[in-house]
């Protein structure tokens, strides 16, 4: 049996172990250890490679970005910035067609720029947006679907944990990945807004319980507007955080690690100024930061060990040769790669897909002349769609569990997210075919 055959068998074993419920980190460690042992016939080499990987895998200063951005996101969540952002968006957009749906997308877009985690957005806006939308006549399932669909913006709009993980796995600049995600993220947000307005005009029954009553309520001028001072006080903190973090990164004034530190400090000031952070909450935030960060860093060590096993098996070079010999160009490879990611998104979570696929595919993409920043955004877009597709659809399940409404089933929420999936597929095709959408501000 050749090393190449062994490599393919081990990838199949890895996917099977994850589907059977084994933690992805343990599955990566186990498969990589077994693979090196079988291929080289030396268990001591497996132990030695494991030791070297554990020592050097996360020793770089760059890895400090992970706990810092996680801490910033948790502090922002604690300080109720998400609720305030939605209230401001609701105030400004209530007269628009599907105004509260557009407000949810707008609030998610801004909130994503300081959290980087889709699940956090889904949990926050399920509590804030869904009851408000339902109260104003929107169908509960559509309201929940809007929150789930727009929550995926947190995985693309910087700073994003998925972009950080991809940057580490593909060995590209994390600051560059953040900048690369800006235009596709805005395209996705604007696409969601256009879709919500269009679907409300064309199929109002899909969106509203009683379209005529909602239209009259929207045009009614009897509501009392929010005072300008209150509106500014609610919006200024999050806008300052976005400008501080992304502005510093875009101008090159901060490295990604420094931006994470500055952002975390700014989020701490916001939380303290709002008096929303006492000692128990601070301890809870620090504990959650540690748990999340250690989990991610352990995954990255495991992925590094897995990558070394793949290199020993010669798998990336062999697959690159097959792709080249088959006559597929860069766009053909991108198409089939995105299709594989979409299919994997139905059965695996986002991080697992990145950890399994990027070590294999990134060297092939580079060999075909595909810019790795462009390749990364295509990857994350495809992975994001998996957050909404059954049977896994973690964003949908997060919204369903947080909502806890027996009248709104998981199937109904999945149905309401279908228009969002269609928009994401369209943006994925545009970004894949037009690399400038990613590289405009990079080179």
TrEMBL record:
GO terms for cellular component: plasma membrane. Residues 12-436 form the TRAP C4-dicarboxylate transport system permease DctM subunit domain. Keywords: Cell inner membrane, Cell membrane, Membrane, Transmembrane, Transmembrane helix, Transport. It is found in: Cell inner membrane. GO terms for molecular function: transmembrane transporter activity. InterPro entries: DctM (IPR010656), TRAP_DctM (IPR004681). The chain crosses the membrane at residues 6-39, 60-82, 102-130, 142-169, 175-208, 231-253, 289-314, 334-360, 372-393, 413-442. The keyword Transmembrane helix applies. It is a multi-pass membrane protein. The keyword Transmembrane applies. Its main location: membrane. The complex comprises the extracytoplasmic solute receptor protein and the two transmembrane proteins. Belongs to the TRAP transporter large permease family. Part of the tripartite ATP-independent periplasmic (TRAP) transport system. This is TRAP transporter large permease protein. It comes from Cribrihabitans marinus. The lineage of its organism: Bacteria, Pseudomonadati, Pseudomonadota, Alphaproteobacteria, Rhodobacterales.
